[in-house]
UniProtKB/TrEMBL annotation:
Family, per entry: Belongs to the flavoredoxin family.
Keyword Isomerase: no
GO molecular function, one term: FMN binding
Protein name per the record: NADH-FMN oxidoreductase RutF, flavin reductase (DIM6/NTAB) family
Cofactor(s) needed by this chain: FMN
Keywords on record: Flavoprotein, FMN
Superkingdom classification of source: Bacteria
UniProt cross-references to InterPro entries, sorted A to Z: Flavin_Rdtase-like_dom, Split_barrel_FMN-bd
SMART domains given in the database record: Flavin_Reduct
Domain Flavin reductase like: 20-174
Length: 201
């Protein structure tokens, strides 16, 4: 049996191991806005639900050379952001948005995405996403590592919106959304075969 001691691994080695183990991971495609009005968009796969009551999500955003990423900085300034579901139709633009642009450059403009007015928050949503979660900052945590820090953003969902074609009986039809998940390295995964299991009494 292979064993790995995380204390002896570099940040890159831990990252490679974790992202190949914890799969598939949903992708939070986040829009945020800077204090000078630049609309930022970036994907994050260290993302998940925390609770339904209150409706909370978490996103982990690693710093680069001790510098906060634009998304984290923007959320902490405005206390608002929008999470979009990455799907088969928008995944190439989602991936393209991860390019290293300057803070004054908009990934939305760079990838030719279409901003639209959100229902509750001031940060625009993107038309190319079929499902959107408008969020307000609930809590910000910082975890210090040996090779840098990570900003953990906890957001409270203040509005759900979805295209009519993917909604039925008050819930989202996942098969119609065709979400894309993140695997390790450069690999992604489609939804694949869906099956059901009855929960024990």
């Amino acid at each position: 049996m292979a064993e790995f001691d995380p204390k002896t691994l570099s940040k890159k080695e831990n990252y490679r191991l974790l992202t190949s183990i914890v799969t598939p991971r949903p992708i939070a495609f986040i829009t945020s806005i800077s204090d000078v009005g630049v609309l930022n968009a970036a994907p994050f796969s260290y993302f998940n639900i925390i609770s339904a009551d209150p409706p909370l999500v978490s996103v982990s955003i690693g710093r680069k050379a001790e510098r906060q990423k634009d998304t984290a900085k923007n959320i902490l300034q405005t206390e608002e952001f929008v999470i979009h579901v990455a799907d088969e139709d928008n995944i190439k633009q989602v991936n393209e948005s991860s390019a290293n642009l300057q803070p004054e450059e908009s990934e939305v403009e760079h990838t030719k995405l279409s901003p639209m007015v959100s229902s509750v928050v001031g940060v625009p949503s993107l038309k190319e996403s079929q499902v959107r979660l408008e969020c307000k900052l609930e809590q910000h945590l910082v975890f210090e590592g040996e090779e840098g820090a990570t900003d953990v953003i906890i957001g409270r969902i203040v509005s759900y919106s979805a295209d009519d074609k993917v909604v039925k009986d008050g819930s989202i039809q996942t098969e119609k959304v065709k979400p894309v998940a993140r695997l390790g390295g450069k690999k992604y995964a489609k939804l694949g075969k869906v099956f059901e299991l009855e929960r024990p009494e």
